[in-house]
């Protein structure tokens, strides 16, 4: 089984801790842990499972940041899913030993929080167990183990005039598929004509379309990695160059603050 996960994982680099934390500094590991503790312990969201779709700094007002007369409270904005609902919370983590949920609301408007990697992994496994999809792959003379599907779009179809509006405000996503054998560049080999619609909440295929059979582009000539494509990309390396700033870099980095 081959799964294509399209989410981008932001890995924070090792950023040197500053002796003077700035009010707009991102949440620290200890603050993030405190947010998790407070939200899981909150009686406001008893339903389980509870998944965190966004946790970030709840930025203080600009005027307060500029004046910096007092040390500002540290707060997090949280978007979570539980019990089939989207929850928004503000959590005070000024003291990470006693975090407090300050505000909570259930979101009833348009849209859903972005998918988690766990959502995408579970969705990517569904097509292989969906007989119409397996048949579509077979009809194209392909091996199902060479095909991978991924969640491409955000999946809000509620309210509009479109055909998709029949999915209403369900938490659904369209999936598209690619042939990944023989190339690192699977985007160049789409399985044209095939679209699956997945209800992420129920983790089930709820819509399927195989509207046209087109040839899958060949794998040859799709290589893009410089070390694999051959000359001129694999020739001798260019001579090294040197950039000199005799008076220094002209800026200073202190924690997350950059000053000139
Ligand atoms: C932080 O919270 C803990 C636990 O409630 C408490 O013992 C401690 O005094 C608090 N620290 C400050 C600076 O308020």
Automatic annotation (TrEMBL):
TM spans, by residue? Answer: none
**Which Enzyme Commission numbers does its entry carry?**
1.4.3.-
Which GO BP terms apply?
A: amine metabolic process
Q: Report the residue ranges that make up the Copper amine oxidase N3-terminal domain in this protein.
A: 114-215
Q: What residues does the Copper amine oxidase N2-terminal domain cover? A: 22-95
Q: Which GO molecular function, any one, fits this protein according to its record? A: primary methylamine oxidase activity
Query: Cofactor binding mode, per the note?
Result: Contains 1 topaquinone per subunit.
Keywords (alphabetical) are: Copper, Disulfide bond, Metal-binding, Oxidoreductase, Signal, TPQ
Q: Which cofactor does it need?
A: Cu cation
Q: Which Pfam families match?
A: Cu_amine_oxidN2, Cu_amine_oxidN3
InterPro entries, per the entry: Cu_amine_oxidase (IPR000269), Cu_amine_oxidase_N-reg (IPR016182), Cu_amine_oxidase_N2 (IPR015800), Cu_amine_oxidase_N3 (IPR015802)
The stretch of residues making up the signal peptide is: 1-17
| PANTHER family named among the record's database cross-references | AMINE OXIDASE, COPPER AMINE OXIDASE
Query: What is the protein named?
Result: Amine oxidase
Organism for this UniProt entry: Eragrostis curvula (weeping love grass)
Q: In the record, what lineage is assigned to the organism producing the protein?
A: Eukaryota, Viridiplantae, Streptophyta, Embryophyta, Tracheophyta
